[in-house]
Automatic annotation (TrEMBL):
<dbReference type="InterPro" id="IPR041236">
    <property type="entry name" value="PriA_C"/>
</dbReference>
<comment type="function">
    <text>Initiates the restart of stalled replication forks, which reloads the replicative helicase on sites other than the origin of replication. Recognizes and binds to abandoned replication forks and remodels them to uncover a helicase loading site. Promotes assembly of the primosome at these replication forks.</text>
</comment>
<comment type="subunit">
    <text>Component of the replication restart primosome.</text>
</comment>
<feature type="binding site">
    <location>
        <position position="605"/>
    </location>
    <ligand>
        <name>Zn(2+) 1</name>
    </ligand>
</feature>
<dbReference type="Pfam" id="PF18074">
    <property type="entry name" value="PriA_C"/>
</dbReference>
<keyword id="KW-0547">Nucleotide-binding</keyword>
<dbReference type="GO" id="GO:1990077">
    <property type="term" value="C:primosome complex"/>
</dbReference>
<keyword id="KW-0347">Helicase</keyword>
<dbReference type="GO" id="GO:0005524">
    <property type="term" value="F:ATP binding"/>
</dbReference>
<dbReference type="Pfam" id="PF18319">
    <property type="entry name" value="Zn_ribbon_PriA"/>
</dbReference>
<dbReference type="GO" id="GO:0003677">
    <property type="term" value="F:DNA binding"/>
</dbReference>
<dbReference type="InterPro" id="IPR027417">
    <property type="entry name" value="P-loop_NTPase"/>
</dbReference>
<feature type="binding site">
    <location>
        <position position="602"/>
    </location>
    <ligand>
        <name>Zn(2+) 1</name>
    </ligand>
</feature>
<dbReference type="GO" id="GO:0016887">
    <property type="term" value="F:ATP hydrolysis activity"/>
</dbReference>
<feature type="binding site">
    <location>
        <position position="562"/>
    </location>
    <ligand>
        <name>Zn(2+) 1</name>
    </ligand>
</feature>
<dbReference type="InterPro" id="IPR005259">
    <property type="entry name" value="PriA"/>
</dbReference>
<feature type="binding site">
    <location>
        <position position="574"/>
    </location>
    <ligand>
        <name>Zn(2+) 2</name>
    </ligand>
</feature>
Amino acid sequence: MVTQDNKNTQHTDNQQNMPAQTSNLFESAQTGKPRLYAEIIVPLHLPKNYTWEIPEELIAEAAIGLRVEVALRGKKYTGIIKRLFNKAPESFTPLPVYSLLDSTPIVTPTQLKFWTWMANYYLASEGDVMQAAVPSNFKLSSESIIRLAEDMDGQDRTIELDQENDYSDEEYLLAEALQIRKELRFTEVQQILEGRRIYSVVKKLIDRGICYIEESLKEKYKEKKAIFISFHPDYQKEENLEILLNNWKGAPTQLKILMLLRHMALGEGDVLQTALLKKAEASATTLKTLLDKQILVAESRSITRLPELTPFIEMDFTLSSAQQHALNQLQQQMQDKHVSLLQGVTASGKTQLYFKLIEQVLRSGKQVLYLLPEIALTSQIIRRLQHHFGGHVAVYHSRFNPNERVELWEKVLRNEVQVVLGARSALLLPFKDLGLIVVDEEHDSSYKQQDPAPRYHGRDAAIYYGTLFENCPVLLGSATPSLESYYNAQAGKYGFVELSQRYENVAMPAIELDNLSLITREIPRPILISPRLEEEIHLAIKAHKQVILFQNRRGYSPYQICNNCGWIPQCKHCAVSLTYHKSKNKLLCHYCGTEYPLITTCVACGSHDFQRKKFGTEQIEEAVAALFPKARVARMDYDSVKGKYGHDAMIQLFESQKIDILIGTQMVVKGLDFEQVSLVGILDADGLLNFTDFRVGERAFQLMEQVSGRAGRKDGLGKVLIQVFNIHHPVLQFVQQHDYPAMYAQEITHRKDFNYPPFTRLLRLTFKHKDTHTARQAAVIMAQGLQQLPALVVLGPAAAPIERIRGQYYWEMLIKIPKQNGMLSACRKIIDQQMAILQSTKQYARVILSADVDPV
Ligand SMILES: Nc1ncnc2c1ncn2[C@@H]1O[C@H](COP(=O)(O)OP(=O)(O)OP(=O)(O)O)[C@@H](O)[C@H]1O
Ligand SMILES: [Zn+2]
């Protein structure tokens, strides 16, 4: 097995050799009854899937895609049946499956094929994929933590006395323990139930909404709930409400609440209890009377949860002739080609084309998957989609809690949801009948999963997933396509359609370069806001327009340096310099998050003379606020928006023009549609152009073009000012001309000359160990093994650019694999062999290897 980054992997492959228990089940073999075996995927990083036996009494119900309860090395897991067969394994006697957890499959055969592909292509295991795909509530294991659920109003769940009889003794016992303890480890559940029938009991309680399985710590978040007020169904009809209000005899404050609610519901849809009471200047008691009278109803739900809408299709717009032409072309191409690329300049209305295509698929009764980078999944696009398709639309992203995940999983499985808008993980939902996958902003590198395995690319996985359905074309969309996709389009492998003007022929923003080297003579560095940019901001604000200032570094200043000896404070655990955060008055490691007090004395020479270098968003915010004391200034970056709700909330504030100047990192550029932005400032273009990565030209172009694309979307009066020293950099000329093909021509030549993607396939192997020498040596041994395949080009091993993270040393190598069939799997074979050798050697047994295919 290749990757080894799951801590459950420290094992030898001994399950297959374990002696089977002698039980009655096995004695039945002598009687000649049929036997049934199952290949089962368990959510662990195992070298392969193992086999269990289905006991006789479960044979009739066993089916592919069902969950089962199995034991592996003394622990219990939920697995998924991948394959059933009758021939007994020859070299070992399998253990029995304890129980089946479902009566109908929760995973489709199509998904199982997808998992196999993903595990193979991304050098992961099917268990890794299962772990990523299946909601945690579906995956009980010995490591699970079971937590008491909350009621609608945020109170702990309790069992009503009159329901007691519905519960089995064991269920009741466990529910009671949960009410006292709030959360239980699986081992504790085992003790409470004395080790019997654990899964089915826990599952029953989950089904009843009493408890849920805690997500792994990393994903844990506190769900935000709020109470929403609406009219009782009896009064949702306007006529009935009218009669009620006209004949009102109750207290006037109650009437006020009702009138306000009617008004607010028109504008906003769902009304928050807090907002309603505040506006009505009424008390909770008054509201309660109305609830008791069953005129109003209160519902507590997660604030991310969508309101229940009826499904409808409402296409209340017409395409411009350019859009219509593009749509016709697209439809034609999509008939011939599995993948098509739509390149439309910013604000050309690509989204409207997607809507038209979605409409057609919906009418044909099939499902649609609409993918976006996680951070671009804002209420803006959700609203746009719901406006056209109402309750047909479901949204799937990492903010979902375990219950919501299961709920959506089941709805998709039952084909009750027609359109899913989601981030890459939505690909892992059990679609029945997909008829279209849209990958919007397809160039975005956040489509790539970084950690843990499987490190899949959402776009590329979508392309494969689409082939598993009958007639499911994949549409990639972007103003600035990835070089890989554009290359495939040029080569005729993908369909290709262009939309080269903005909707309503609105002009593209004018892009001007602001040569900083001309002004540094008068103003000392660093220059945050040049006089020219300051002037433009003044003009924009005077005209009641909005401004976006883009800087791709967060914090106050990215590092400080000793003026005497050049020493730079670094993180103790990671080989990175510390960023100064003024609001916290601390130094922060951006890799592991460790905070340090300010350092005022140089560790190397004892000097107190430090200089802060470069600038981040925090410092810009400070400078802008000082320059424009009357403007409403906000900053949007990882630090300022706590959680992802904050991000969305800030976008809404900006959208409703409650913010004049928005300063942000690349968070602000993802496909957002603001009408009133007239000025975009790119503060440090040099910083974008000076990376040592073969994709730097492409990336810098995409970022600048995308952020520029937020300007002048409605009236064409947008202006972009780029602050830069190196004004002759070719990428800047391409951005100025909005000339994607020229950028492509230049970059693709480099890629060809140096044999980078799309001309080769890249694989990055990273070896981690707390001792740098061990990590390096393991990498060297791997590199030697890879010499068996002379067609591979192995770069390295070398210390990773950041050679130490969280106390582990990182050594990596980059392998260029020719794009021939079978090369990747041949390479994988060698990696697996070498890894097996390494792991059987005591010195290297703890080396962790992670593999990243097509790294971005
Ligand atoms: N046919 C149309 N009818 C009405 N409004 C339209 C039409 N086409 C585009 N628009 C409006 O123009 C604006 C820009 O369109 P949209 O957001 O779809 O552009 P885009 O191509 O997706 O841009 P970007 O790549 O920058 O995200 C939106 O506000 C959209 O509602
Ligand atoms: Zn660190």
